Amino acid sequence: MKALQITNLKKTYKSGLQALKGISLEVNEGDFFALLGPNGAGKSTTIGIVTSLVNKTDGKVNIFGLDIDSHSVQAKSLIGVAPQEINFSQFENPLEILLNQAGYYGINRKTAYGRAEKYLGNMGLWEKRNEPSRTLSGGLKRRLMIARALIHEPKLLILDEPTAGVDVELRRSMWDFLIEINKQGTTIVLTTHYLEEAEKLCKNIAIIDKGNIIENTSIKSILSKLDIETFFFDLRHAQSTPPVINGYDYHMLDGSTLQVDISKQQGINNLFSQLSEQGIEVLSMRNKSNRLEELFINLLKENKTDSQV
Amino acid sequence: MNTSQYFTAFRTIVIKEVSRFARIWIQTILPPAVSMTLYFVIFGSLIGPRIGQMDGFNYIQYIAPGIIMMSIINSSYANVVSSFFGAKFQRHIEEMLVAPIPNIIILSGYITGGIARGMMVGLVVTLVALFFTELHIEHPLIVVTVVLLTSTLFSLAGFINGIFARKFDDIAIIPSFVLTPLIYLGGVFYSINLLPEFWQTVSRLNPIFYMVNAFRYGMLGVSDINIQSAFTIILIFTVALFSLCLYLLNKGVGIKT
Ligand SMILES: Nc1ncnc2c1ncn2[C@@H]1O[C@H](COP(=O)(O)OP(=O)(O)OP(=O)(O)O)[C@@H](O)[C@H]1O
Ligand SMILES: [Mg+2]
After folding, report:
1. Residues with Cβ within 6 A of ligand 1?
2. Which end of chain B is more exposed for a tag (fewer CB within 10 A), N or C?
3. A94-104 and B3-23 are packed helices; what angle lies between their axes, rounded to 10 degrees?
4. Per-residue confidence at B32, pLDDT binned at 50, 70, 90?
């Protein structure tokens, strides 16, 4: 079963800007899916259309097989969304916000109260349930929107940059929480600019750029595409002359930092033996950056040159 | 969603709307009570006795129904326009738009909130009126029906204003430049029989004229017009505006990009 199926979706805003140029996308039930792309790529526009907040220009969207036009009520009841921008009343408190949202889904007060306690608790907001929401910190506001998205226990959870502005510790606990509810069967689609987050959480990704999907694949296969990786080696003693290493592309960043490009076929053992032979001691090594990030940048570069042709 | 779930959704919107205006009663209930008191003092007690009788009633008795009606119209309109525009402005209207609530329930919820505030204010102003004059109710059923229909109609009008409004100016312009003139020229303070033929005809184009007269008929038993045609006209306006609101909501005008 496809939790989400988008077919040839187009969106032209009134300004004339074509935000989506005909994207197609499928998310399987149970998937943990990341929608990636630079600012202005069209991620939030896509989410807006899926959640009935933005009118589409053309195309189809199905939620668990239900067309959002012809079966709008049933389709909506399966989705929970935490949007990118704050969109709750600044004058209401977190508990009211959750209870009202539950009411909109037809959930009675008693059940709603229990769930509000659970999800506000999960998001560390139960102690603040009676404080005006405008007084919450930025990160807590984001978490309030996630709790609100969960109140009707949706089968498809859509999170538009859920961890933007959330501190490191909380981000990790949020990840654990999302992994847990995904395991319990909730399909999750999220957008993020932290590629580490996508790598850690998601099974499949789509990269969207300028209203087109330029990559749609599994995290595994996209990482395996990445043939060459750049490593840094921190050396114990500063070198006055660069070491001689055969078969590798390398240079010294400074006296004690060596940068080497290593392809999958080459492996790393040979490099170490050559260094030891020259009496060079390696203290530590690290990746240049997140591997996905490099790949991401490359894909966007390719897309730029493609569109110039 | 089944019927009882739809009802839960409807009730949630209504409770939210009513607690909104109840919480800020100093802005929503008190001002009409104060300004209508001034009307009664100035037009009723001070100037009224010099005007003498109108259609066989003291002037203060004659204008009381119109003044109550005026406060109901203003309050129901103001409630829906400010609440709906506020929800748009702060974007929490999206909470309802993503939820499985048919638009007719969203609309009915807001309208019920407007009716509740209209009735609440109408009641308070009626109590104020009782300090100045005796009020007796000739046709209670007509009074109730007219109040319901009028507050519904102006809640709908406020809703349309809220849909099209883009900034706070837009929710102040219509009440000042359209609603207030229509109310003052709708026969709140005079019987149109006092007007020249031409202006009588013009007055008949004003929907508020029918509401004020139907309400006055319910209270005093006198009216400038036939009561059936007044009801017909109010009903037609209500149905027309309800359909228009629903159409605009379904298209997402002013709320979806
Ligand atoms: N209401 C609107 N009216 C006109 N143009 C819009 C509107 N909303 C978005 N856009 C434009 O559509 C394009 C896609 O925007 P969108 O918000 O979907 O991007 P995004 O991928 O979510 O970006 P970000 O990572 O910054 O959130 C952008 O060029 C944006 O300026
Ligand atoms: Mg976005």
Report:
1. A 13, 15, 17, 19, 37, 39-45, 84; B 257
2. C
3. 150
4. very high
